[in-house]
């Protein structure tokens, strides 16, 4: 029985990998210095879903193989093994976080989430005000230790805060529909956003450092100038991917429960 389950897990994981490879050519890519700096695609769904459904091992396998096969099909610049490692982590981490958070209270999670992103926005806004209108103050000199591009922290924090709040509003909109399908989405969407968001921010930050290491031309522009657009893209895709992954989980649970009943 266990071997059958493992085989089923592997087959479905292979299907997700195949889907990711098929969709790879349709991704929107941005390159700098011959190195891929940003990819807007739905790859993450195809290694996140197996991890959430079957466990971290399958997410890691999917993440690693999707990166390797994707590069083989459409190489851009030199192959960087560190990206494969971070993609494996990107498949494992959401599954681990999901096991921790999925049974937590939605109410508490929503409150903590709201406080975090509101504070993030306020920090960015206060930083912006101080740098822009209080240039001769001690506070401004304190913030300027980040250098001439310190204002990017302000813009980045405000953008991330706004996106986080927008995601919260999307969740509140979903809550209004009481159908069975939406009830499932409501129970898991917000938690999924947090799981994929934490994982996405972590992986995006690590990958940005890797890009700077392997692309000397980008070092002059600084970490924040590269990180902010990447993190904004990550959070926006998190909102979309979380919804799609919830649909996949709902569909799988519905299908599997029917199969079990028939058996």
TrEMBL record:
Gene3D superfamilies in the record = 1.10.1760.20
Q: Decide whether keyword Transmembrane helix is in the record.
A: yes
Q: What are the transmembrane regions? A: 47-72, 79-101, 113-131, 152-174, 194-219, 231-252
Gene Ontology MF term list: transmembrane transporter activity
Q: Name one Pfam family in it.
A: ECF_trnsprt
Q: Which UniProt keywords apply?
A: Membrane, Transmembrane, Transmembrane helix
Q: What is the protein name for this chain?
A: ECF transporter S component
Instruction: Please indicate if the UniProt record lists rRNA-binding as a keyword.
Output: no
